[in-house]
């Protein structure tokens, strides 16, 4: 070593508790092997002649669950946690910090309101980072004039907001979220801050009123239109699917009259982009938007680091850029890191997280685990990328970070108008024709989870990634607030992940030697989400139906084979409960999580499988259904009360309701037999105890569905058409099984 001792910018710690976990996992695996053995040996024996097919099905399901459980061990084997040293970063590099380009994506002003979007924009503009080194880009796939107007308003408000939040170290830096914390935690003690706060709150409220008004009437006020030339870009606008590239640089140091805040300090550059859309060109959803942003930003600011957030994911921690740079700029390991993923956290989850939206075990268990195997997935929002790797560069041992050379950039001379014109061309529909964009460069096209497939391809090129979960959450977004929204979102995800499995990037059969075994297994856990539906559906239908026929599918309580089953059930339940508590969840939250786990598997994943098969045969095409970020008033009240919101009738709800009603019938029938025993049906409880328990569990976990079907009168209940369909279907299955 040289004379100065190397002190890293970040530290990686292995999780404690592995010594306890590993023996437990091994013992559980032994029990699983016994279950497999039991299944095989009992199928070979001819004892269960009348349930042979059912037994074969159980064998398949148990093999699947055991195999899938093995895959999930990749997460739990060697989790790591990271810590950053921001002081060292600023001591060594404060003067040489790289430029950072921040991309915010929005696509629909109805379900992604302009106020929410600009709050996200303002929150990232106020990062504790040299303003002249930050550029914020808003990509608007709706090409909405109102959103542009809102951004224009935000660019003026930023002149007050950014200096205010930096002066008083405001947290979070999203104005709406900050004002909300003031309401709950009281005004600051510092009186000058209070004065300024009152003034800035007034400015904010006025701006909000103007934007809400414009939204209501669906039109930008005349005066604003006259004052800014940018609105003329909408003259040739036909519809959100048919318009020219619209690009406006709202704040930029090349326009000195309009680039400084009220204290005379430079503000981050701010750019509005609506890439060109034409009906004859497919737009590739968010991936298309990101690639346009990559090109446009390379022409305007060319930051070496790129942060990507969804329009609802505001920055909750002003230090995040510095945190991310601690990884990228570390002298020893920084060069091999392609991206730093922060967890997606949500501002609107309720205490017991009815829809399991906080994805707690992904954030707290899976990703630290993946981080120990080569790095987490890229999950779209809250991710810092190195421009090089995102644009398709392969990693090689010769690769070195180069944070210099920022001064001699080609766009130095061009005027703002020239920059705008050149950049528009980069966002045109035809630009990508016959290029590698969407294939080898930028985000990958053709997959509903463009983020995951892109991250995977980056890792396959030899790069590492890092997961960083700071004590103060870095980003907060909005989770879906109804059951159908949750199910649709998971359908998109599981469908996308399954497509990755079948693609040329498949972690299963094309990942060997390109990514580590642990990472291969980890990716497969997600890629196999959708196929999970088969075994889960089997388990939630067949054992209950076979109760009616008195055919046992599990060992009797007195048999030694009962032990491995009991061990796996009790062991896994206890472990998952402990893990959930350890991650900060509640008991009810765990129960809710279990329910949503079941619902996703029996509906979202099933439809994801069906759609993927249809897509393979060229019958359908995957789409990107954007998650709504607004909730109606009475629905949102029910959400606060953690009452399940079912809403309009849909095939997914019909399936869930049918399964619930079917299990209810089976369970009632077993109860009836217990009270009035049939001559032949004695001892169901001894010989079929696990089956009865499983059926009872399914009834218990489905309580919200029975309420939604039979007891509730509000608008969030299950529609009566679903009730009718599910009862008819369940009854048909019940009758044909009881009397066949
Ligand atoms: O054509 C489109 C569709 C969506 N978006 C934007 O993409 C983001 C994510 O959409 P959302 O409906 O909120 O999806 P989520 O399921 O919440 O998003 C997660 O999953 C997506 C992939 O399925 C990723 O793109 C996201 O970054 C990731 O946060 C939003 O900002 C949208 O405005 C676009 O810009 N263009
Ligand atoms: Mn979202």
TrEMBL record:
GO terms for biological process: cell wall organization. GO terms for cellular component: Golgi membrane. Keywords: Cell wall biogenesis/degradation, Glycosyltransferase, Golgi apparatus, Membrane, Transferase, Transmembrane, Transmembrane helix. Its main location: Golgi. InterPro entries: Cellulose_synth, Nucleotide-diphossugar_trans. UDP-alpha-D-glucose binds at residues 112, 141. Mn(2+) binds at residues 286, 310. Gene3D superfamilies: Spore Coat Polysaccharide Biosynthesis Protein SpsA, Chain A. It holds the Pfam family Cellulose_synt. It is a multi-pass membrane protein. It is found in: Golgi apparatus membrane. The keyword Isomerase does not apply. It comes from the Eukaryota. The keyword Lipid metabolism does not apply. The active site is at residues 141, 451. One of its GO terms (molecular function) is glycosyltransferase activity. The chain crosses the membrane at residues 20-41, 53-71, 523-541, 561-584, 605-628, 648-671, 683-706, 718-739. Belongs to the glycosyltransferase 2 family. Plant cellulose synthase-like E subfamily. Thought to be a Golgi-localized beta-glycan synthase that polymerize the backbones of noncellulosic polysaccharides (hemicelluloses) of plant cell wall. This is Cellulose synthase-like protein E1.
